[in-house]
Write a structure and sequence with these properties.
With about 290 residues, the chain is an alpha/beta fold. It has a single domain, classed as TIM Barrel (Alpha-Beta Barrel). It is about 30% helix and about 15% strand. The chain has ten helices and ten strands. The chain has an eight-stranded parallel beta barrel, surrounded by four helices.
Length: about 290
Amino acid sequence: MAVIPVKVCGITRLEDALLCARLGARAVGFVFYGRSPRAISPGAAREIARRLPPQVKKVGVFVNAKPETMMEVAARVGLDMVQLSGDEPPEVAAAVRGVRVVKAFRLARMRDLERIKDYTAVHAILVDAATQGHYGGTGICADWELARQATRYGKPVILAGGLNGGNVTLAIRTVRPSGLDVCTGVEAEPGIKDERKLRAFFDVIWESSDRIAKLVGLPARPGGEVVAEVRAASDLSPAELLARARGEGKGGGAAGSARPAGDASGEQGGARDPLLDAPLLDELPPA
């Protein structure tokens, strides 16, 4: 059964990432932009990424970063995709190699759609709300009609902007996106996810998928590869799964053997790597 892929963005804590994986998220997003309240250092993101199953894709969100910086961070962290959420021109998107590229568009009017056709090198486009002075993460809904129109440009469309358990079904029906990006709608505060809101959101996603499965004669809620892998060890609570991921408890080695998520120490003699230690700021001149 096909379940619409969901990326949970603004991850800053290991326990939130693991919960997203257990619930069925296909991707998690790390924000490498120092002015964001959800910013995370590449080093902390790397420690979280290492503990996730391979089917959960790791996405780095950048704002006006240089291509070489994005590629370097992608290699160090182990990113599967980079998301360009600033004012990056098409040539910056085309210069990124070795990792898939998603370009975010904050669409306010019909003529904004014309910019999409210039980004021929990107794998997918993300449609977010147009809010003055912000590069996303506002909790404001995108213009769903403009998002629907964006699907005509031949690229997968990921819908972002103000999604939550109460509006996601209507959003899917209206836009028919290839994927969803949720952030503020499942948070307790910026960068901290709310377990109740996350579960409610994914319950809606799975219930919608179950209805589709019944219509076409497939078994309902088989779990999917991501959920199956994360749950394979046992039916663990979030706290138990977190302990297992950290190497604590049964079968996980000595307690406390794993470094905390925020420890970006180098592998050799505890040397620090400046690239891994701090969230990144914008580097390109304004468009």
